[in-house]
Amino acid sequence: MRFLEVLVTGSAGFIGVSVTKALRAEGISVVGFDAKEGKDIADAGALRKACEGVDGVVHLAAITGVAYSVAHPAETMKANVEGTRNVLEAARAAGAKTFVFASSASVYGDAQGAVFEDTPTNPKSPYAESKLAGEKLVTDYSHRHGMRGVSLRLFNVYGPRQNAGYGAVIPSFVKAAKEGKNITINGDGKQTRDFVFVEDAAKAFALSLKKGSGVYNIGSGKAASIRTLAEKIISLTGSHSEITFEDARQGDVRDSLADITKARRELGFVPGYTLEQGLKETVTL
Q1: CA–CA separation, 227 vs 113, rounded Å?
Q2: Residue 21 has pLDDT above 60, yes or no
Q3: Per-residue pLDDT tens for 70-82?
Q4: Catalytic positions, please?
């Protein structure tokens, strides 16, 4: 199917800007819908109007961050679950053929080793619970209304101009390193994450509009420890920052690593950036 117009919620956000750029590069007209521009996914009427005439929807808008969700569970669940239902209903009413949802690797909880899409889910925070509930809504609408639904379980997305809010580790570390302040790690630093560059994540959304169905892991397929990450950032910035440690945060998982075989096979998703390449671009802007 040739997409002419796509609604992107959260279009002014960190990932949304890159997704919008990727879609427009393919000649797709993007209708942006973002709270920063006064457009809230809680407003069902505004969503229905924005969806008129679109071929597909990419749903990124959400309250993000594990720590924030633990402190504000009701707000997180309402925004992320009911907000997703609102976007799905608007897409259905508009006759959109495809719905791509930004889910999260946090749905796996403390799974051991690389996780596959059929690895049992075990959410450890309200944020993770809300994303899993969102996936179920996408599946339900897909089955009941014939709308092709795709949920992308994003691992740790990073890149230039990312906000350090909601506990995003890389921009927090980069900011501290550039200011010559200590880089503080929650936990012992041996915990691992799968970091995926934002342009690679955006590519996955563009690919999902064309093909695929169900859930997909979107990561780099490689793990790095948080301490190693801090050391790389200190080196790249030429900083004299020291690494310090604090207690682990409630709701944080110990290790996270994506098996991206399914996304590679069914979507044609192949990450183009190594962690070193992505960090170089991140710290220079």
Answers
A1: 19
A2: yes
A3: 999 999 999 999 9
A4: 127
- Residue 153 sits in a domain whose CATH number is 3.40.50.720
Which residues are within 8 A (CB) of 36 and not within 5 positions of it... i.e. 6 or more apart? 12, 13
Q: Evaluate whether 208 touches 267 at the Cβ level (below 8 Å).
A: yes
DSSP codes joined into one string, 217-261: EES-S--EEHHHHHHHHHHHHT----EEEEPPPTT--SB--B--H
Residue 249 domain-assigned (yes or no)? no
Q: Would 44 be classed as within a structural domain?
A: yes
Measured in degrees and rounded to the nearest 5, phi and psi for residue 56 equal -155, 170
The string of pLDDT tens digits covering residues 209-251 is 999 999 999 999 999 999 999 999 999 999 999 999 999 877 7
**What does the alpha-carbon distance between residue 241 and residue 101 come to, in Å, rounded to a whole number?**
38
pLDDT (mean) for 116-130 = 96
Asked whether the whole model's pTM tops 0.85, one would answer: yes
Torsion over CA of 2, 104, 279 and 251, rounded to 10 degrees? 170
Which range of residues forms the domain containing residue 59? Answer: 5-158+196-219+259-271
Number of domains in the chain: 1
Least confident of 61-75, 130-144, 263-277: 61-75
Whether 233 is covered by a domain: the verdict is no
Token pair 């007209």 is found at 29
Structure tokens at 135: 């996936």
